[in-house]
Design goal:
30% strand, 3 helices, four-stranded antiparallel β-sheet, 4 strands, 79 residues, alpha+beta
């Protein structure tokens, strides 16, 4: 499944299935990572219009990681 498809599936489940407040979205805002709940993210992103999916770094639910962006620089630093 593509990254966009995976994130859309998580958002769909979160918005229509389980309590949305249990989801945390970590997104890139210039050089820092911002952490917000899903309802806050929907407001800030103006219903997903102003923050593209490509800026989402991680999604968690009750501290379980559901999505995390793969970063090349992390792999290079692990040597």
């Amino acid at each position: 499944m593509t990254k966009k498809g995976q994130i859309n599936e998580i958002f769909s489940r979160a918005r229509f299935g389980t309590p949305a407040e249990t989801y945390k979205i970590f997104y890139r805002d210039f050089e820092k990572i911002i952490e917000v709940t899903l309802p806050e993210f929907i407001k800030v992103s103006e219903n997903f219009e102003t923050i593209p999916i490509s800026r989402i770094e991680k999604i968690t639910k009750n501290n379980e990681v559901l999505f995390e962006k793969y970063r090349k620089e992390n792999k290079n630093n692990e040597k």
